[in-house]
Amino acid sequence: MSTEPQPRKRLTIARSFLLQGIAIFGAMVAQNIFSEWSGDNEYIAYGMPVILLVLFLFLFSKELNKAIGKLQFAIANVALIAIGTIIGTFVLQLVDDPRVYIDYYGETWTHIFGYLCFTDLFHAWWYVALFILLVLSLIEVTRRRPWGFRHFGFHLVHVSLIVIAIGVWTDFYFGFRGIIPLTVGEKSDIVTMFFRNTTIETEKKRLNFNIQLGRFETEMYDHEYRIQIWHKPPGQMPTAKAVVPVEEPGVHEIAGTDLSFTIDEFYPDFSFRYEGDTANVLPEDPVLIADALIGDRAQEVQLRSLVPDSKTIKEPRSGAHVTFGWYLSQQKRAQFESAEQQVQAKHRLFMTQGDSLVGSNEFAVGDSWTIPGTDNTLTFVQAYKDLRVNTEGNEVYEASNVYRNPAIQFEWFDGDTTKSLFVFSRFIGSDENPMQAAFEQAVGMTPVYQFTTGEEYIVVGGERMIYKFLNSGFEKEPFELGDTLAIGGPDGARLVLRDMFPNATRVRSIPVSKSDEYKNPRALVTMYKGGDTLASKLMFEPRGSMDGLLRVQNEEYFLALGSVTQHETKSWTSLLTVVDSTGAELHSEPVEVNRPMHYGGMLFYQLDFDPDRPDYSGIGVSYEPGLYVIYTGFYGLVIGVFLMFYVTDKKKKQKRKN
User: Fold this and answer.
1) How far is Cα 359 from Cα 445, in angstroms, rounded to an integer?
2) What is the pLDDT of residue 94?
3) Cα three-residue angle 433-435-437, rounded to 5 degrees
4) Is a pLDDT exceeding 90 seen at residue 558?
5) Which spans in 6-151 are helix H?
6) Which of 261, 230, 266 is nearest to 247 (CA)?
């Protein structure tokens, strides 16, 4: 019998994958046991994973010890980490509702992904175990390599990789990211946190100091408008060929054609200025020119008193309407001045369940209504035209007398106590209305509020008076051009009286720009062919419509007006002040994009803003305790690579030369 020693088994990539695969399988089993028994039997929950770990080390410790310092093991390890990271990127992570996974993957695959710990992969035990094996491999490689200055770069690279891994996992488990939403003048010490450096909101964290927002400012990019030249052959999609700045004068040739165009005028905020005779002119066709303002939008309207369909404008949500006339009939005047009738605001509440209408009722203050199909009763307490809530959230008040944020307050009895319910006309959902959310959960129905005021305004041109028939009674007052008439609605609709003429046929309209702001840009452009005028048009941005384009029949080229930069936000600036519990100011600093504030080991930066709320700023908060550890590791890595591939290599070349 031969007594020659048996050859040692050569470590292969396949054996490395197998060895680490066994470790992955054991970690999956251990985590499933822990999840299943945690809270029910702590001995099993903690004991079985320990037993599995001891069993793995008993069976594979020798082979693991031989393999862990080899290149094949490191290649397999990095490959498995990469595969795990890819899986975690494509599989939905950390969704609380299991029905979401079932909708995406089906019930079978949802269970499989759960057992494999794919739905919270970056915290899965097997994924963490791969990084532990990577660190152990780096330690073993470093330990086996001889020490000395010649190998210092090699050791520094591997130690730096270990330091980086420690820093990353320190941040991952102990760091957090969150946001402090603030309005100007408000302070808070509550950070809305996200799940371990993800974007999933989980909990609130209280700081040991307050952050106060002193001011918030935004800077916008300016528009850069161009005339765009487009080519559209028959049956093909249009393609852009060139652009010409609107400020560029002269005749612009369209290359390869006999077409050209001129930009005659550009109006950043286009409007008309009206001129006409008013003295000694009979009111044969009276016209009132006004700007209808709804929120930030403005639209010109012309009310013609002798044209039935053009003499009244109505605010659809509130029901208020404005009528223009040159005279007021004796019958209407008598009706107003008697003030015997009063228009009352009408409030109607709809109850919906899913897409079905359960019932509705019209209310006046003090009325009660038993919701169909339930024992719950609603009592109408109060109506608000413009409801606001103070910063502490414990008091509501009427901000103005205009219907900007209509709401009604009810009291309802849930069987035990009487509760309040506020229902808004503008905001149908209950996401930001805890009272409505509680009501919907208890009753199973969604309240929807609609209102109409029926208020009537009559602008009498001959008398220059406004007759107001309001829900609070009759009013009459003189007006001047430029006055604003508030007609309500949830967006605070207003009518600005601009011009008035007794005869519209004798009025001249002159194009002008009301301001230098790009609110309503238009360009007057003329197109020529061989020197002859083809067409002239006042162009505007298409925005889904072809009306603003300059197109000529049978020509393949057309022109469009557009901006190469939208009027987007360029920068945000928030003045932050750190305030302690006594109200003393500890630190103050402006925060901009890419210019955060460092305080208390945390980073405060500009994260969010809302263009509809100019006094709101979302302040991001980041705590990264492993950040400087990671920086240290990267510095060491760079120095180590430099020593390995420059200093050591240079010495080798010198040695060979000698």
Assistant:
1) 10
2) 67
3) 70
4) yes
5) 13-37, 42-67, 71-90, 98-115, 125-144
6) 266
Return d(Cα 500, Cα 483) in angstroms, integer. 12
User: 474: which strand partners?
Assistant: 469
Task: List the alpha helices (DSSP H) in 214-264.
Answer: none
pLDDT of residue 263: 95
Exposure pattern of 56-85 as b/e (b: 16+ CB <10 Å)?
Answer: beeeeeeebeebbbbebbbebbeebbeebe
Average pLDDT estimate for 80-99: 80
**Rounded (10°) CA dihedral 336, 340, 345, 350:** -130
Question: For residues 623 and 604, is the Cβ–Cβ distance under 8 A?
Answer: no
pLDDT in tens, 181-200: 999 989 999 998 765 445 55
3-state secondary structure of 74: helix
Distance CA 119, CA 112 (A): 10
Beta-sheet pairing, 456-460 with 321-325? parallel
Report residue 149 CA to chain centroid gap: 55
CB of 349 within 8 A of CB of 364? no
Provide CB contacts within 8 A for 9, sequence distance 6+: 15
Nearest to residue 345, comparing CAs of 471, 456, 450, 449? 471
Beta strands in 312-390 (DSSP E): 312-314, 321-325, 346-353, 356-363, 368-370, 377-384, 387-389
Strand partners, 319: none
Which of 15-29, 118-132, 380-394 is predicted with the least confidence, judged by mean pLDDT? 380-394
Tell me the C-alpha distance between 480 and 497, whole Å: 8
Spatial distance between the Cα atoms of 289 and 276, rounded to a whole number of angstroms: 12
Cα separation of 136 and 165, whole Å?
11
Question: 644: which DSSP letter?
Answer: I
Q: Is 256 left (phi over 0), alpha (psi -120 to 50) or beta?
A: left
In whole angstroms, what is the distance from residue 544 CA to residue 546 CA?
Answer: 7
Provide the strand spans (E) within 371-455.
Answer: 377-384, 387-389, 396-398, 407-413, 418-424, 446-452
Residue type, 196: R
In three-state secondary structure terms, 445 is: coil
DSSP E strands: which ranges in 530-568?
532-540, 557-563
**Among the listed residues 283, 278, 280, the one whose alpha carbon sits nearest the alpha carbon of residue 327:** 283
DSSP letter, residue 196: G
Check residue 43 and report its DSSP letter.
Answer: H
Q: Where are the alpha helices (DSSP H) in 116-199?
A: 125-144, 152-174
- pTM equals 0.49
Closest CA to 45 of 56, 58, 36, 55: 36
Continuous segment of H or E residues that includes residue 435 = helix 434-443
Return the DSSP state at 222. P
Cα–Cα separations (whole angstroms), residue 378 to 29, 333, 364, 438, 439 = 55, 40, 12, 14, 11
What residue type is assigned to position 152 of the chain?
A: F
Tell me which residue of 636, 29, 550, 480 sits closest to 264, measured CA to CA: 550
Q: What is the pLDDT of residue 610?
A: 82
